[in-house]
Amino acid sequence: MIIDRIDPIALRLPRSMGAAGSSADALYLVLCKVMVRSGLVGYGECLCLRPAMQRSLVATIRDAIAPLFLGKSVEQKERLNVEARLRLAAFGRSGTNLNALAAVDMALWDIAGKAAGHSLSALLGGAQRTRVPVMASLDRYNDATKVTARIEQALAARVAAVKVHEFDLDIIEAARKVVGPQMPFVADCNNAHTLADVNGSLSRWQALDLLWLEDPVWPPEALLESPPLSRIVVGLGADLGSAEQLGIYAKAPSVGVLQPDICMIGGISETRRAMALLKPLGVSIAPHTPFIGPAALATLRAASMTSRSYSWTLTAATLACNACPMRAVTLAASL
Questions:
Q1: What percent of the chain has pLDDT over 90?
Q2: pTM for the whole thing?
Q3: CA–CA distance from 333 to each of 115, 119, 124, 126, 154 (Å)?
Q4: Are residues 109 and 77 in contact, defined by beta-carbon separation less than 8 angstroms?
Q5: Distance between CA atoms of 12 and 156, rounded to whole angstroms?
Q6: Do 231 and 206 meet the contact criterion of CB atoms below 8 Å apart?
Q7: What is the CA radius of gyration of the chain?
Q8: 42 touches 109 (CB < 8 A)
């Protein structure tokens, strides 16, 4: 199957101001359509949040990634992924180039699955389970009233867990009270604290009984040599660009959850390598996804391949319908 055409697709999905608690007027997405000479078509997706990033990703797919793949065979997709990384390594081993590469790689796996008549999880070795629990992953609000109201909305949708993107410990504590003591709860601080900050308030962080504390400190390298944080499990890795980078953090004393992001790591090919590398290292794998398109489906498949309890699929802040039970997603025979 020879790759004949690669087209980035920029989408703007309007939404009403304040929808799901967000001030953004639209969702900005970048998809990628790949066609082979036989006529089969596959789709991939990038991580894209803003118009400027959308323009950058479209240009990168069109001008930097596509020329490396056109005329090549889909069956060589994993080798082509490595070759693209080598060609672009001088520009960094994470970030926009790998994000764009992921969309093309994902589309090739989609084509391979369609040609073989198999789901992605079957291509990767087989699912360990057919249902994956759903975690409501909320926007950042920096306001206790707004975040607690949004949590109540998510709970009405019957999600199985809640994740907040807040760094103010007072707000996180207020959120935990609404979530309740029994439901799994994650706080993502987006690297807002220093390690000294966290240690200085350690008893309060411990009292939250977090499933994990995500991206708590800057620089994250501070965790590599520091002692374990007592009764705190740290999760990180969504911004890392290779299996080897994730493997380094798997050895950090405080890190118990690694979060490969299928787009930021450069696609399904590298996600496969990462999961194989991490499996014997004694850490839990929680594939990271803020996506709503092909990358979300591919991440579901990746999550289905591990039986560890920390593997969740994350709903976006635009959780669709409060009347729809969202405790788990059942996997069908698709991407």
A1: 76
A2: 0.89
A3: 14, 6, 14, 12, 27
A4: yes
A5: 28
A6: yes
A7: 20
A8: yes
The pair of structure tokens assigned to 119 is 């789901």
In this prediction, residue 330 has a pLDDT band, given cuts at 50, 70 and 90, of: very low
pLDDT, one tens digit per residue, over 86-134 is: 999 999 999 999 999 999 999 999 999 999 999 898 888 888 888 888 8
CA distances from 78 to 106, 243, 271 (A): 11, 14, 11
C-beta of residue 45 within 8 angstroms of C-beta of residue 29 = yes
| Per-residue pLDDT at 266 exceeds 90 | yes
Q: What is the dihedral of CA 256, 262, 268, 272, to 10 degrees?
A: 0
pLDDT in tens, 137-179: 999 999 999 999 999 999 999 999 999 999 999 999 999 999 9
The 3-class secondary structure across 2-41, one letter per residue, is EEEEEEEEEEEEECCCCHHHCCCCEEEEEEEEEEECCCCE
Buried b (16+ CB within 10 A) or exposed e, 65-87: bbebbeebebeebbebbeebbee
Element (H, E) at 69: helix 66-69
The span from the CA of 311 to the CA of 309, in Å, is: 6
pLDDT of 22 reads 52
Using DSSP, state whether 230 is helix, strand or coil: coil
Amino acid, res. 226:
S
Locate tokens 């055409």: which residue?
5
> Are 36 and 4 spatial neighbours (Cβ–Cβ below 8 Å)?
yes
Choose among 335, 308, 319, 264: nearest CA to 132: 308
Residue range 286-321, pLDDT digits in tens? 889 888 899 999 998 888 887 654 555 665 433 332
How close are the terminal C-alpha atoms of the chain, in Å?
18
Q: Is 100 left (phi over 0), alpha (psi -120 to 50) or beta?
A: alpha
Tell me the DSSP string of 114-144: HHHT--HHHHTT--S-SEEEEEEEPPP-S-H
Q: Which residues contact 57 (CB under 8 A, 6 or more apart)?
A: 8, 30, 46, 48, 96, 99, 100, 103
